[in-house]
TrEMBL record:
Family per record: Belongs to the protein kinase superfamily. CAMK Ser/Thr protein kinase family. PIM subfamily.
GO biological process: negative regulation of apoptotic process; regulation of mitotic cell cycle
Keyword Phosphoprotein: yes
Catalytic function, reaction form: L-seryl-[protein] + ATP = O-phospho-L-seryl-[protein] + ADP + H(+); L-threonyl-[protein] + ATP = O-phospho-L-threonyl-[protein] + ADP + H(+)
Stated name of the protein: Serine/threonine-protein kinase
Record function comment: Proto-oncogene with serine/threonine kinase activity involved in cell survival and cell proliferation.
Natural source organism: Nothobranchius furzeri
């Protein structure tokens, strides 16, 4: 549990007859932001593009029906927080002074309405999700390209996303080196408060083998399995399916470097206890070679 300082918008104010009623949360939202076209729809809600009226800052506006909202924590004034809001605020606190390190998409505002919650998020421009980035490439990514992205992905944040996949990874395309940003923390959990659920959170086709065979689930080993999935889909021309891998219907390319194949195979260990941790992946020879290979003039800035 952690405390987060926020400005309370829910305090009741006694007003005289001459005073105007306080604006509703909806009025405040509409006064501050302009909502535009639908960007995407998922199981937990819909995301629209938009702008902050004061400075035309591009934003993403996420609408989450109240039945899909999971409450998990409270701030210092007792206001309830959803798992997604709590995770994003914690990540922002940890990354505030981390220049040159991974950075999550920023949460700018959130509003609670009767029927839904609205999150207003940073919207990097130009950017595409990783699945579109792979499609635009028209062929599997080069190993060095994939390595740059995976290195950013395995940075330790003390929060498990639990649904890491190309659709939930934004790639900023405005610089020579792709900048990676994780989005959609609606299924995330904190590493110091939750270790084993016994229930799988995420995309069904990406379920780890321990859940498929025994309905056992741990966020840490499952996250490493998902890192392997992201790398597999970047380097191959097929979508990943855990059951197909278990049935030997998916193969790792033989022309990849030895270290890359070892990295993938370690992520895909059938036993969760044999998979490396995220910290151990950071020290894998395949990723360490990337850092050694870059001169001071081309050192990568790592993001999430």
């Amino acid at each position: 549990r952690f405390l987060i300082k926020v400005d309370s918008q829910a305090k009741r104010i006694r007003m005289s007859d001459s005073e105007s009623p306080a604006p509703s949360a909806k009025d405040q939202f509409e006064a501050k932001y302009e909502q535009k076209d639908l960007l995407g729809k998922g199981g937990c809600g819909s995301v629209y593009g938009g702008y902050r009226r004061a400075d035309n800052l591009p934003v993403a506006i996420k609408h989450i029906p109240k039945e899909n909202v999971v409450w998990t924590d409270t701030d210092e004034i007792g206001q309830r927080l959803t798992i997604e809001v709590a995770a994003m605020l914690k990540l922002q606190t940890e990354s505030a002074d981390s220049v040159g390190k991974s950075a999550p998409i920023s949460l700018l505002d959130w509003y609670d309405f009767d029927q839904e919650q609205i999150l207003v998020l940073e919207r990097p421009v130009p950017a595409v999700d990783l699945s579109q980035f792979i499609e635009n490439n028209k062929e599997p990514l080069q190993e060095n390209q994939a390595k740059t992205i995976i290195k950013q992905l395995v940075d330790d944040t003390n929060i498990f996303h639990r649904d890491i996949k190309p659709k939930n990874i934004l790639i900023e395309t405005g610089s020579e080196i792709p900048r990676l940003r994780l989005i959609d923390f609606g299924l995330s959990c904190f590493t110091d408060t939750e270790y084993e659920d016994g229930w799988f959170y995420g995309t069904a086709k990406h379920a780890p083998p321990e859940y498929i065979s025994e309905c056992v689930y741990e966020a840490g080993p499952a996250t490493v399995w998902q890192v392997g999935i992201v790398l597999y889909e970047m380097l191959h021309e097929s979508f990943f399916d855990s059951r197909k891998l278990l049935d030997n219907e998916l193969r790792i390319r033989t022309d990849l470097s030895t270290d890359c194949k070892r990295f993938l195979k370690s992520c895909f260990c059938l036993s969760p206890g044999w998979r490396p941790t995220l910290k151990e992946l950071q020290c894998h020879p395949w990723l360490l070679f990337l850092m050694k290979a870059n001169s001071p003039q081309t050192t990568l800035t790592m993001y999430k």
